[in-house]
Amino acid sequence: MAKQQDELVFLPLGGCGEIGMNLNLYGFGPPNKRQWIIADIGVTFGDASTPGVDIIMPDISFIEERKDKLLGIVLTHAHEDHMGALARLWPRLKCPVYATPFTMYLVRDRLSEVGLLGDVPLNQMDLGSRFQIGPFDLELMTLTHSIPEPNAVIIRTPGSTILHTGDWKIDDGPVLGQAVDAAAYTALGDAGVDAIVCDSTNVFSPGMAGSEEDVAAELTKVIGEYQGRRIAVAAFASNVARLSSVIEAARLHERSVCLVGRSMHRMVDAARATGVLKGISPLLDEEEAASMPDGHVLYLCTGSQGEPRAALSRIASGTHRNVSLSKGDVVIFSSKIIPGNEKGIFALQNELADQGIEIITEKMRPIHVSGHPCRDELKAMYKWTRPTLAIPVHGERRHLLEHAKLAKSLGAKRAIAPHNGEMILLSPGKPKIIDLVRSGRLHEDGGVIVRADDNGLRQRRKMSFAGHIGVSLVIDKSGKLIGGPEPRISGWAEGEDGAHIENLLDEMADLSEKAFRTLSKNQRRDEDIAEEKLATAIRRFFRNLGFKRPIVEVTVIKI
Predict the structure, then answer these.
(1) Whole-number Å distance between alpha carbons of 221 and 225
(2) Mean pLDDT of the chain
(3) Which of 100, 467, 473, 519 has CB atoms 3.0–4.6 Å from 484's, for a disulfide?
(4) Do the Cβ atoms of 122 and 107 come closer than 8 Å?
(5) Domains of the chain as residue ranges with CATH
């Protein structure tokens, strides 16, 4: 038998066809003996379509079944959509983790919360490190993004060089950290890049994303315009450069800063501990800030996306323990609206406005820039690296297809816009999709991780739309009805006097009793059969009504 040839493959399990929940696999070796690494392992968040579910992760069953061949997890940066699933899914994978100092600080923090800190092999890598994981020769290359220490990863295997960008932008004035080294990327392109796996988020946006340095200047100007008034700034806690800019702007206008929200404290602690954030003015605690004159304090808050449990929402509703705002105060949203969060953000802003609080957003002043590459930045990256193959990731389907089109116009010979679960052969030979593996979503529900098609979650979704009908009745050993039927309705509109529900309950009681009496003696004695027959009759009743198909549950109790 001929010896199988080594192959390099790329397999996204999350982040293609969506923004968030990034998980990418690289495999090398003969098809039956491939060794694997994971680049990022992130989450996304639940919405109205997933009631009760806050955290959603990629289905990792493919690599879980091959975990004996999994050599490590490499994290490009510390955003939740790139590392938020690590602590939750590591027990299923049990492999080493590699990250730079700031990211590793937050990894340790998360692992400690779930009691795994001593179990996970952690490898802290310096910025710019080059290291070996099995057959993978990896090198970290600095980029700029909206969090400290974002890294592209150069993945070298015999005969191939792949550039995995992670999230990035080109910022010549990043406030914190290093600017993008164009010469280094050009040198990489000179040496030859077989494929680039690249961020697609802003592919439809012309120009450049903009610089944190410019945002810092504008924030300083805006904060200076409200002397004598209490100010709160809402920002993404992970954007430590933005936090630094706000703190410096406050100092310049003789204001002291108070951090409000757990994530703010977590990120500032991480940035200080790893040397990212140095020499900032002392920060107030909430009790100290409450005693300060209005014109001498600035609150730096979580909750820019209208999250109901975040600091700013609690401040707006008057339920925060220590911080309050009132008429004449100012709230600056130094953030963008993430698609899907519009309703919550507008509700929060309306609540603030109704109290006479002035609101300033990035639509009104240039107080936010994106952390992802716009078209001119993508053009620059392709000019520097000149990849043969482009694989767009980190975007909805329309983003990936547009990025593939753009890449080919910029000199890439081929472009493949993958779906999650599509395995791409990178080398040897012509790149192509060679397999389709199981992908999907895992939902964390009450501390339990289940597949998205879990029966309990399906029932909850149905219940949220159509409610729940329960009927209970009691029989004796002979099958004689001695109690009930007792119907219950949950999740239905009651109306002003509740008459609609009362009439419906009466109809269901009559229906259930008639259905029970049509059963044979043997059927009445068997609780399972009786429950099934009555549930079928009730479902038929609601189907004939034509306006709802609720969850129906019948309980027969034999005494």
Answers:
(1) 7
(2) 93
(3) 473
(4) yes
(5) 7-207+370-451 (3.60.15.10), 212-360 (3.40.50.10710), 467-558 (3.10.20.580)
